Amino acid sequence: MAASxxxxxxxxxxxxxxxxxxxxxxxxxxxxIAVIAYLIQFPWVTAWAVLGVTAITGAAAFAVGxxxxxxxxxxxxxxDFDSVSTRKEGVHATMAGMAESExxxxxxxxxxxxxxxxxxxxxxxxxxxxxxxxRVPSGVQALGDWLRPALGGVGSSEIFAxxxxxxxxxxxxxxxxxxxxxxxxxxxxxAEAAIRQEKAALxxxxxxxxxxxxxxxxxxxxxxxxxxxxxxxxxxxHRLEEAGGRLDADAYSLLARQLKRAGKYxxxxxxxxxxxxxxxxxxxxxxxxGVIRGKYNRDYDGADKFYRRAxxxxxxxxxxxYNLACNEKRRGRTAxxxxxxxxxxxxxxxxxxxxxxxxxxxxDIGNDPLFQSITLNGDNEVQGGDIGGRNDGGESPSGGDLRxxxxxxxxxxxxxxxxxxxx
Length: 423
Hints:
Distance between the termini: 91 Å
Structural class: mainly alpha
Mean pLDDT: 75
Order of helices and strands: HHHHHHHHHHHHHHH
Radius of gyration: 34 Å
């Protein structure tokens, strides 16, 4: 016995589409015969006028039927997490600097506004239709009376008018419904699959160009070939977003690092903000966006907002406190900067004392007694209260740049309350 061939859904769709075409041709043939039979009773000139009215009325009814069929047949988007969990292990191993997550990368649904509108309209139409069902006969009769003069005004004109409207509406509905169910679902699935495939490939490409987790990975000069690859990735990202796709938050953060190394600071900040949008409770992307805005773009007010938003999300996130101290010093607000610096040092004294002593932002106050008492003597009681934090990095000694090594994103659970600088 011969083995049966595997089922091919594309072949089934093609066969169904061919059957729809055959039945549509048969329905049109029946309609054409009915119209010709009706027209032969009129003189030649009148027949052409009636034919025009018949054609436009039938086309309008058919279009209404197509629209209704489309609304009732529009497929729904199904969220799918298959093939996503297999990416978790390799991605987290490469992106050791990002916050750990117990769940795989999320799969984001496409825009479903049209589906919702379709659902609302179908329910409204069904509800209104049931309520007004008793008025249908009178409405049909009124339609026939209205079209009768334009269709020749003979005894059968009213019946013919109602017939062409109902016939074309039902035919349009069936064709629209079946084509939408067969073709639209396939087209949407293909487009969604293409977006997800490009998203996965783009994220893998971003990971592949990320520098090794060295002590200071961002200090390595970017070569011309790397710049070209970053530009290519940026172009691919624009195309993906234009098609309705988005990267995951961690991938946006990795790409932002490469854009910053390439000197594309505005694009890097934008990528960090997209990561923050996808992870609204994570202060890390906002902290990095603040570094881009403050150090590289010299917009200290804008950087202040990013740092404070990060701290409001998690008051234990010490890097944002240290970076805010550097930002305040750049704005000429030394007292506030020292208060925030003492806050960061109280969380991790050895680390932040060393960073503050080596950071060029505080170079001009290196001999200030208060600065020395904070960074050398361990006296962190500055007029703003005691603030602890996370031992996970901030602006580096080499000019206030944010370090992005793996240890800087590992969250500790030490809690504190930041009262802010005193006025």
